[in-house]
Write a structure and sequence with these properties.
Rossmann fold, alpha/beta, globular
């Protein structure tokens, strides 16, 4: 099973990565760190007769990885009650991917399971719910399967490791992913 993790955090080894790595223990996964990639903001040309102009950045390569994955995890900190800027730029460009004749974007992601992992400060499990809803709408629009989500609380670096509930849920998701991976190989 090919698992792709798209990290939206701007902080290396921050709480989002720490929690996601708990989920990934013993799971073979490809990791994409958007902070290390160049993803230009979208120039909206959805209604232009000629469509979108090509953009020379890393977006297309990540889309290709996404299309070949069996499951995608979107991991982002909760920034101002939404996804991080790098994650937002990445998702906004899906409008371009949807009209790009080199990809069958919607066909390629249709039915593909997607998980969302969020970490934030105080009451993140509640304040992150609108972002979960946003991802649910995004996945529905492109036809992805919204497989589930995990929200953890940890404002200061490393504090996520004190969120017993999030760690318990991460352990459960880890077991689910390892079972799916085993079923792919048998």
């Amino acid at each position: 099973m090919q698992v792709l993790v798209i990290y939206g955090s701007s902080r290396e080894e921050g709480n989002t990565e720490l929690l996601t790595e708990k989920v990934l223990e013993g799971v073979d996964a490809t990791r994409v760190y958007l902070r290390q990639k160049e993803i230009r903001p979208i120039i909206d040309q959805r209604h232009a007769p000629e469509g979108f102009d090509p953009v020379d950045d890393d977006h297309d390569a990540i889309i290709a990885q996404m299309l070949s994955a069996d499951l995608v995890i979107f991991a982002t900190p909760l920034y101002w009650y939404g996804m991080s800027g790098p994650m937002k730029d990445f998702v906004d460009r899906w409008s371009q991917s949807s009209r790009d004749s080199r990809f069958d974007f919607k066909g390629g992601v249709k039915g593909k399971p997607a998980w969302v992992i969020i970490t934030g400060g105080k009451d993140a499990w509640l304040k992150g719910l609108p972002l979960i809803q946003q991802f649910a709408y995004i996945f529905s629009f492109v036809g992805m399967e919204f497989a589930g989500y995990l929200i953890g609380t940890g404002g200061q670096p490393g504090k996520i490791l004190e969120d017993e509930r999030a760690l318990l849920e991460a352990g459960w998701l880890n077991r689910q992913l390892r079972q799916k991976a085993e079923s792919f190989t048998s």
